[in-house]
Each structure stands twice: as C-alpha cells, then as structure tokens.
Amino acid sequence: MAESHLTLFDKYGGIPAVRELVRQFHERFVTKPGLRRYFDGIEPQKLIQHHVEMIAYAMGKPSASFEPKKMASEHHPLGITLSAYEQVINILRQVLLDANVDGRDIAEIIHRMDAQRHRIVRDAKPLSNLYNPEHIDELTGLGNDDALQDALGAESTKYHESRRDLSLALMRAAGAGREALPTDPRAVQMMDRHLSGVLARTVREADMLCRRHDGSFALVLRATDAGKAIQAARRLQSAVAREPFMLVGTRLSIDMAIGLASMGGKVSSVPELIASAEQALQTATSGSQRIVAAA
After folding, report:
1. pLDDT higher for 206 or 182?
2. CA atoms within 13 A on the CB side of 214
3. If residue 172 lies in a helix (H) or strand (E), which one and from where to where?
4. Could you give the 3-state DSSP secondary structure of residue 25?
C-alpha cells in the first residue's frame, strides 16, 4: 500500500484549524479599506468561504474546491494591484506566525499561494523571488538575507528612477529592564518567534520585514523618508515593549535597539544603506539612546 502524504492541512488540524486561521485572516482583511474595496459587491459569507478555500488550497488540502483556473476570470476584472496582493500575503504571514505555524511551513504555504499571483494581478509574473522558499527564514517564516537584498534592490531602482523615498531599519533586542535577555539557544528562538509576531502585526503591510542570519530584524520602509522612519521606529519599539515575552514564568519587557538609514546624501546604494543602518544599530545597542538614525 502506498504511503499517504501528510499535508500541512492535516498537520495543523484540518478544517477546524483552517476556519480559525480564516477567522483571524478575515478580521484583519476587512479592516483594510484598500483591500475591502475590491470586494464591496460580494456577500460577506461568500468572501469568507472564498478565503476558506484559498487557505485550504495553500495548505495542500487535496480536495480543496478552490479552482486556480477560475481565478483570472474572477480577479482580473477587479483591477487588484500588486501592492494590494502583497498586503494580502503579509496578512496571511502574520496570521500563520500568530498561530505558531513552523517557519518552513509558512514558507511552503506562502510559496503555494504566490504561484497564483498572475491569476490575481493582471500582467504579474507568478512566483516572485521574494517568496521563494529559499528566501524565507526557517525559524520565523519572514524573509531572510536573500529576500532583503532582493527587496532593497527593487526599491533602490525606484529611488534612482523616480526619487521614491527608501529607508531601512535594523533591529535587535538590547535589554529587558532589570532582567537579563535569554542566552539559552531554545529560549532565544522562542524570543525571536515572539518578536517576529509583534513586529509583523505592527509594520505596515506595504513594508517588508526580514530576519537576518545574525538574528537581527530588518524592515524595508518603502516610500519612507528619514523623518517618517523615526516615527515608524518609535511605533515598533513601543509595540514590543507593550507585549512582554513570557519565559519560565518571568515577564520580559524587551527594549529594542533600532538603527535607521535612508537613501540620499552620502547613501546612494544598497550596500551603503545597509552599512549605515548597521553602524546606527551598533550605536543604539551599546548606548543609552535606543533609536539612532545614521547621519
């Protein structure tokens, strides 16, 4: 007898799990006017069922009634933009993170969903390199260093062609009040998963959050100048401080160090942008001022 293949749909609990994921996904989806407007004429229950079928399909349910071939005829007339599509992907990633789905499984789900990009967005190419499983951090499901480089490369081109603002925030846990940050590898992983969830819920859907090989987080702030980048950093820092990390009964209020850099002046390339943000992060980590913008 042939061995049955355990899908992610089965692994995470089947229909009950998918319905809970959809409930959380739909709650976030309808709060975004820029997304909701595409589906104003559709009955809420029908939209929810569409989300159920979409997520079940992305999780590999063999009998999912979701039919990819119908997507172009149903979605192209709506005029959905690439930016709106990426917002949907980011909402799905946030929901999966909050549900403690394994990072490698998040990568697989997002990749499977992204295979339908061209059927949702007219003239878009399927399988963006940003969502390639090899460009996903296995612990958190966020983008990794390769995804960061791809995103910055694309945004740098827009900066040079049309002077669209671009900023980069690099972040890491720098302290926890009077308590010490965890050093045990397993505890550090748990903390990083916690931080990933908080940050993913806080960032704008238009921006891209990544986790780098050294454990720091990177946020590509699209169409954001230096002043707005500082405002974004304050929001992120406050959000992390408000959601304590629980470690063996101890509540750790984590203080994030954030280094910022923006395109312009002496910074005109991706390597220069990253180097400036890294230097600012080093200053923020070792000094008393936890948010530092590169000069």
Report:
1. 182
2. 8
3. strand 166-175
4. helix
* Pair 140, 192: CB distance under 8 Å: yes
CATH topology of domain 145-293: Alpha-Beta Plaits (3.30.70)
Provide the H-helix boundaries in 12-144.
14-29, 33-36, 44-58, 68-75, 82-98, 103-114, 117-120
Structure tokens at 80: 């959905």
Q: What is the mean pLDDT of residues 176-201?
A: 92
| 53, 64 contact by CB (below 8 A) | yes
Q: Indicate the pTM of the whole model.
A: 0.78
What pLDDT does 128 receive? Answer: 66
Tokens of 122: 């007219």
Q: Which residues contact 245 (CB under 8 A, 6 or more apart)?
A: 176, 190, 191, 194, 195, 251, 252, 254
CB 122 within 8 A of CB 71: no
Share of the chain above pLDDT 90, in %: 49
Strand 245-247 versus strand 217-222 pairing type: unpaired
Distance CA 292, CA 25 (A): 34
pLDDT tens across 39-67, in order?
A: 888 888 888 888 888 888 889 887 666 67
What is the distance between the alpha carbons of residues 220 and 283, in angstroms, rounded to a whole number?
20
| DSSP letter assigned to residue 38 | G
Amino acid at 242: R
Domain boundaries, the chain: 8-135, 145-293
How is domain 8-135 classified at the CATH fold level? Globin-like (1.10.490)
pLDDT, tens digit, for every residue of 15-45? 899 889 999 998 888 888 888 888 888 888 8
The pLDDT > 70 percentage for the chain reads 95
Q: Could you give the count of Cα atoms lying within 13 Å of 184 in the half-sphere of its Cβ? A: 5
* Helical axes 82-98 vs 103-114, angle rounded to 10°: 150
